[in-house]
Amino acid sequence: MNLLKDKVALVTGGSRGIGSAIVRAFAAQGANVAFTYLSSEKPALEIQEELIGMGVKAKAYKSDASSYEQSEELMKNVLADFEKVDVLINNAGVTRDNLMLRMTEEQWDTVININLKSLFNLTKQVLRPMMKNRSGSIINISSVVGDFGNPGQANYAASKAGVFGFTKSIAKEVGSRNIRCNAIAPGFIKTDMTEQLDDKTKDAYLTGVALKRFGEGKEVADACVYLASDLSSYTTGQTLSVCGGLNM
Ligand code: NAP
User: Fold this and answer.
1) 193: Cβ below 6 Å to ligand 1?
2) Domains delineated in the chain
3) pLDDT, tens digit, for every residue of 98-118?
4) What dihedral do alpha carbons 220, 221, 224, 226 form, nearest 10°?
């Protein structure tokens, strides 16, 4: 299938986990892919070569999504290399879990800056080029935790709940320019982020999952393909949950 043929996608945090599944799924659908990493240089460069081997244009850029200056620089480089951006996926994210009584200011700031401020940093860069093209799709990776809340994750839940409000506002601001903005709320997906959790916590999650298994990065990536492609041309300001029917 070539659902994204000749589209250019920019994905933050494409070096591991869900982001690496997204860049692979997009290349498989014919998209040219620019993606970022922060510290995982070797995996990022290996993925870049893998995507090029799939017959598309691909490039990995080292860029901290929480930095406005680096995001501005990134966009300049991506436009110089790819000429346009049709799809932005704000995927980069981290956890710094702690109960509120013990949470440090640094843990709070790190999570808010990487998970939420990054949406401002990157969306601001792509809007003008998308407006010029009178077309675009922005996909923000939130979490079911932004809806349900979770003890020990007040910083993470706040950042992910912020993603919902941001998504709906941008959808209303730029809908008349044919730019769509949607969120995806994954549940428990098997990546490095969830690998750190102890077995007791994993079992507790699994009890609430209707499908009785954890998700794969590819299952989130397939939802991104849908929201990036013309199959979702009348969908904006929405959240698509990819959580196996999780109830927390
Ligand atoms: P992951 O395996 O830990 O991967 C995180 C990715 O984000 C890596 O590629 C990492 O790059 C990148 N990254 C981190 N900080 C960055 C920064 N400041 N600038 C640029 N890139 C940065 O995490 P994941 O599980 O794939 O999560 C991806 C997204 O899905 C996150 O937004 C997360 O909150 C969300 N999510 C995940 C789950 C889940 O169950 N896994 C559930 C709900 C939502 P480097 O390795 O190069 O640092």
Assistant:
1) yes
2) 8-188+216-242 (3.40.50.720)
3) 999 999 999 999 999 999 999
4) -100
Q: Residue 215: CB within 6 Å of ligand 1?
A: no
Distance of alpha carbon 118 from alpha carbon 94, whole angstroms: 12
State phi, psi for 97 to the nearest 5 degrees: -75, 140
Active site residue 226: no
Q: How confident is the model at residue 196 (pLDDT cuts 50, 70, 90)?
A: confident
Residue with the two structure tokens 């401020």:
117
Beta bridge mates, 140 = 90, 183
By CB neighbour count within 10 A (0-12 exposed, 13-18 middle, 19+ buried), where does 43 fall?
middle
Residue 232, beta-bridge partner list: none
pTM flag (> 0.85): yes
Q: Find, among 16, 90, 14, the residue nearest to 59 by Cα.
A: 14
DSSP letters along 154-218, please?
HHHHHHHHHHHHHHHHHHHHHGGGTEEEEEEEE-SB-SHHHHTS-HHHHHHHHHT-TTSS-B-HH
CA distance 74 to 6: 21
Distance of CA 147 to the CA centre of its chain: 17
Find out whether the beta carbon of 243 lies less than 6 Å from any atom of ligand 1: no
Alpha-helical (H) ranges within the chain are 17-28, 41-53, 68-82, 105-112, 118-133, 145-148, 154-174, 192-195, 199-207, 217-228
Which 3 state secondary structure label does DSSP give 65? coil
